């Protein structure tokens, strides 16, 4: 298996990259980590005439964290985002999800922004962008625009990028105070794409659940965002444990919102079953992360 | 249309190589054909099996998912670069021998490079971490128990060596 011939460009600045992308238009593809694109080329499922390798573009590999959000540049590797403690502090869902993206060796090269642009409905980071109400910065020779997750993902392997454009960065806002999160999935083998995956965020205010939301992968053409607050609102939180919240009811509510499809990996009904079970588990885990554990009596070990 | 070529410079196991390649040449093929080191094996060519894993600037990567031109200027370590200059085995190689962690050996170069890099980051892996380290590499004949034992043994040898 060898890739088809192409013309290779290795711009060293953003302006140069945008110039090349404008010139090659529809015939060009951005090459980021190559962890999705190169397999596609090796299998000859695509044959772009031009590859624009952005790995040498200065200034794109940053992970910038402030009090309210984490912004990831186009060539920041999954591993760099996963191991960034400041980013974890502001948006823990990033690390929770990245641990499930492929294997460590793939994450060393694959980029977080690339996995958003690739828009695989089984890609964990699409759900993270959706659940955090994040956005991407799309840039071309004629300017930049910020696009919300809801508008960015158009269909399976399709985002709203136009010819000559690239994603410069992605921004993942922090959750509101009192929110805990979790990412749970079921895959055939560790590191495989998930049959179903759930990103969950639960907000606890004054000892009671005030909001619960989840985003799903592998059960629809784009990451599906569902508000589950109605099923669990008012569940009481005490001493780090959440009682009285009916997580199973939230699972049933989620099941009523999805219409998964069958493929060689799973039947549609098994996927629907997973939506119910994984929703309940992910919400419970997120609520436990939200509940203030410092009110627990501390047991000292050793 | 004549195919585009570029000159590429790679430092492989400490030695600098400069050569001309078609831009679509995969790093795995460049290492095997242009540099002439055939220890790096090519299994699936889509990132799944891990046989082609090499270290690029110290980090393990799939050489079948990189173009040689993208690696221009990088330092690459292949399985041939793990042993010391005098031929003394790397702790991971020693552990594979002791624990019978290979049969046909096809997958072995990828396991060795992956584990060697992981032990640089974590010299005391738990059993669970040992499993995580090798979870991205496929072996069709040895079975993973011996390979996992070799990860733990390699860590032991490495710690003893200081
Ligand atoms: C064995 C294996 C298992 C994997 N398992 C998973 C998994 O479980 N979950 C998961 O989410 N992913 C998985 N991946 C994919 C991995 O996460 C990729 O790194 C990611 O999907 C794409 O990122 P990349 O940087 O490698 O992009 P590339 O492969 O370089 O590009 C992918 C696509 O996005 C476009 N693109 C990339 N960056 C930009 C940009 N900045 N602007 C515009 N377009 C851009 C490219 O043109 C191309 O069409 C797996 C990959 C492998 C090989
Ligand atoms: S040959 Fe590269 S991962 Fe299989
Ligand atoms: S030893 Fe034969 S494939 Fe692993």
Account of the protein in words:
The complex is a heterodimer of chains A (302) and B (162). By secondary structure, chain A is of the alpha+beta class. Chain A folds into two domains: 1-174, 2-Layer Sandwich (Uridine Diphospho-n-acetylenolpyruvylglucosamine Reductase, domain 3); 179-290, CO dehydrogenase flavoprotein, C-terminal domain (Enolase-like, domain 1, 2-Layer Sandwich), CATH 3.30.390. Helix content of chain A is 31%, strand content 27%. In chain A, β12 and β13 (208-217) form a beta hairpin. In chain A, α11 crosses α12. The relative contact order of chain A is 0.11. In chain B, α2 (91-98) packs across α5 and α4 (127-134) packs across α5 (144-161). Chain B starts with a strand and ends with a helix. Chain B has a five-stranded mixed β-sheet, with helices on both faces. Chain B is an alpha+beta fold and 162 residues long. Chain A binds chain B through residues 1-8, 10, 31, 34-35, 38-39, 41-43, 51, 53, 55, 79, 102-106, 108-109, 190-191, and chain B through 1, 3-4, 6, 22-24, 26, 29, 45-47, 50, 53, 59-62, 64-67, 69-70, 114, 118, 132-133, 135-136. Flavin-adenine dinucleotide (FAD) is lined by residues 29-37, 39, 74, 101-102, 106, 110-111, 113-115, 117-118, 123-125, 161, 166-167, 193 of chain A.
